Amino acid sequence: MGNKKISIIGLGYVGLPLAVLFAEKYKVIGFDINKKRAAEINSFFDKTNEIESSKIKAALNRTSTKGLKVTSETNDIKNSEIYIITVPTPIDKTNKPDLTPLINASKLVGKFLKKGSVVIYESTVYPGATEEDCVPILENESCLKLNKDFYVGYSPERINPGDKNHTVDKILKITSGSNVKVAKKIDELYKSVISAGTFMASSIKVAEMAKVIENTQRDINIAFINELSKITSKLNISTRDVLDAAGTKWNFLKFSPGLVGGHCIGVDPYYLAKKSEELGYYPEIILSGRRINNSMGEFVASECVKLMIQKDIKIKSSKALILGFTFKENCPDIRNTGVELVRKSLLTYNIDVDVFDPNAHEEEVKKYYGFKLINYIDSKYDLIILAVAHNIFLDINLSFIKKNRSVFYDIKSFLKKPDRSL
Question: Is 264 a known active-site residue?
Answer without folding.
Answer: yes
